[in-house]
TrEMBL record:
GO terms for biological process: mRNA 3'-end processing. Keywords: mRNA processing, Nucleus, Repeat, WD repeat. This is Cleavage stimulation factor 50 kDa subunit. One of its GO terms (molecular function) is RNA binding. WD repeats lie at residues 110-151, 166-207, 289-323, 333-367.
Length: 449
């Protein structure tokens, strides 16, 4: 029975593919003439068969925020969802709950790029942090050496925490990500490329593999299995890449995007069939994807767009399952990240607000106010325990901290940058973060014990 269902899904996929070719021919939009590899179609078929078996057995379907549980069978080995440190399930803020104090941190200037430091990312094990710049370079730091710098009685001369500098892009770098195993670093840049760097090769200065996209690559995110990656670009639909073949896939029925960037038509079941593309020619309008991030199991991913919308996507079917239109009014959404339990998304916008959204309903749960960010591509991030939220105030050049549960502002510190930081990134394993400045500098912040 399962085999019959899978075969039928594969046949349907090929029919949809032929229809896509016909549309492509009529609209002069180039598509690869070969049918997409069965690997992705079989992935979909397995998902459909498992869902059908659950219905026949009377097993209730997983809610949207539990979709990650089905990912290991589809994508290989992925980590289980991490427990959230804070329970945001309460519908109303409890005003009687007292806010926690954010521990004091010490900070140290680490290094400087030759131009604006635009982005940063920690490896999952917290051993490395990388920064990207407008000067097209990438600096790789070893966190253990950074901590050695902070020691008051450091011996053996000055410590140099920069262990690699990569030069291979020709335009500014927008985003970075580490492979889940931590040995590969990728970068997305304005030169329409995604580049792969082997951080274990001490002599490597350039990428060993390159993906040539068709648009400015604004954001990149590895699937937790390490076999796929997502690219958010000036194209309105996320690009999914198989990193073994470097082929790009999109949903077969692309959601209809209006001139304001809204998804006017919900994705149907046809979107379960992926279409391989070589070149994509679609109107961009104002839906440019500013950031894209997988959840910790890969069951979902989220996009933050210039049109002010947050869109949630099924990580298996590539369905757009929820659009929060006007999440930050008409202002651009500059960042969006899942909580560890995948039940909520934290967003930041150029309307000077930070918001927490419930994934299953799209309901606004918390709002964090009191910091101005209207110009820079500002990030709002959780600390490693998700008890606090950090962002920046452009006007005062301060780092602002809120209690995640009460939404009360609990700290404001001078950033020590000459101008407001452009990017904050927190370590996933400890009380430490980095700030990247328009003054070209990178600073490391660590809790004072």
């Amino acid at each position: 029975m399962e085999t019959s269902s899978s075969d039928q899904t594969l046949k349907d996929g090929k029919l949809f593919r032929h229809a896509a070719n016909a549309v492509a021919s009529a609209t002069m939009t180039p598509l690869n003439v070969e049918a997409p590899p069965n690997k992705l179609l079989e992935l979909v078929a397995k998902g459909l068969a498992a869902e059908k078996d659950d219905r026949l057995r009377g097993t209730p379907s997983a809610s949207f925020h539990d979709l990650g549980a089905s990912m290991p069978a589809a994508y290989g080995s992925v980590p289980p969802p991490r427990a959230a440190a804070v329970d945001f399930s309460s519908a109303v803020l409890d005003t009687k709950t007292s806010s926690k104090s954010f521990p004091k941190h010490e900070t140290r200037h680490l290094s400087e790029h030759k131009n604006i430091a635009r982005c940063a990312r920690f490896s999952l094990d917290g051993r490395f942090v990388a920064t990207g710049s407008t000067d097209t370079s990438i600096k790789l730091f070893e966190v253990a050496k950074i901590k050695q710098m902070l020691l008051p009685d450091a011996k053996d001369g000055p410590v140099r925490p920069v262990i690699r500098t990569f030069y291979d892009h020709i335009q500014p770098i927008n985003d970075l990500d580490f492979h889940p195993q931590g040995t590969i670093l990728i970068s997305g840049a304005k030169d329409q490329t995604i580049k792969f760097f082997d951080i274990l090769k001490t002599s490597a200065k350039r990428a060993y593999r390159v993906i040539q996209d068709t648009h400015n690559v604004r954001s990149v995110s590895f699937h937790p299995s390490g076999d796929f990656l997502l690219a958010g670009t000036d194209h309105p639909i996320p690009h999914l890449y198989d990193i073994n073949t470097f082929k790009c896939f999109l949903p077969a029925n692309v959601p209809e995007i209006g001139i304001n960037g809204a998804i006017n038509q919900a994705c149907s079941t046809l979107a379960m069939i992926f279409t391989q593309v070589s070149t994509i020619m679609m109107p961009v309008f104002s839906v440019l994807i500013k950031q894209i991030r997988y959840s910790c199991t890969g069951g979902m991913y989220v996009t933050a767009s210039k049109d002010g919308a947050i869109r949630l996507w099924d990580g298996i079917t590539a369905n757009c399952v929820r659009s929060i239109i006007g999440a930050h009014g008409t202002a651009e959404v500059t960042s969006a990240n899942f909580t560890k339990d995948q039940r909520f998304v934290l967003s930041c916008g150029k309307d000077s607000t930070i918001k927490l959204w419930e994934v299953s309903s799209g309901r606004l749960v918390r709002q964090y106010l009191g910091a101005t960010h209207t110009q820079l591509r500002c990030q709002a991030i959780f600390n490693n325990t998700e008890e606090f939220i950090l962002s920046i105030d452009e006007l005062t050049n301060e780092i602002v901290v809120w209690d995640a549960m009460t939404a009360e502002k609990v700290a404001k510190w001078p950033s020590n940058h000459a101008g407001a930081p452009r990017w904050l990134e927190h370590s996933p394993i400890e009380a430490a973060f980095v700030s990247c400045g328009t003054d070209r500098s990178i600073r490391f912040w660590k809790e004072i014990l």
